[in-house]
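Regression check, iron/sulfur cluster case 234:
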Amino acid sequence: MSFLDSEIWIQLMTLIGEVTFFLILGMLLAAVALAIIAAASITRGKFYLPQILIPGMVLLEGLVKAFCKLLGLDDKDLITFFITLRNTMNTKAFSETPVEQRAVFLPQCLRSAQCPANLTPEGLKCRNCGRCSVGENTAWLEKRGYRVFIVPGSTFIKRMVKKYHPRAIIGVGCLMEVKDGIDMSDRIGIVALGVVNLKDGCVETVADWGAVRDAAMLGIKHSSDPVDFHGPAE
Ligand code: SF4
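Current build output:
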């Protein structure tokens, strides 16, 4: 009689099967519970049980998203919620990162349609001409030690990350840009905070500069106020 026919082997396989079954069942139940908490948080505009939601999302994000969709949650609400959740999860690590190791990425659509900035290998170089709010805010961020980039295209961020190795970034943009940026940062091990534009579109979009500055000041000065990353563009 071979080992594969032995009682020990059969018992071992049965045990593995049972453990796997209960693990999957446990994961599904946990994902349903997390989706319900997320749905309640989104519909009431309040973060419920973040101490459960945050670690749960790290383990089961894909499943939770699927259940949230089954619960009828709107894609936009769901993405906004997950950006806020990610921001909350990343706030501590971001605060602990020295400002010299941080960077800010701004989308070029924030510029005035008459922007005279030149395109360089380091992105668009703002001349602080006063035609839009990018100039004064870039100067404000740079004064606090940030490396600020105005992003001319999709591969630019990866190129600058490869060149300057920031450990933490603030990404500004429309809802999907911010979400994709946070996902990309997660994949490459960078702490990211996302700030969604107040007005999106292709030209002369409007950033939530208050939220950008609040995020930028994390860990730089003590603030007891929670950071409000605000919602997406209307
Ligand atoms: S302030 Fe900067 S980004 Fe805005 S229009 Fe002038 S040069 Fe362009």
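Comparison notes: The mean pLDDT is 89. The chain has seven helices and six strands. No diff flagged against the previous build.
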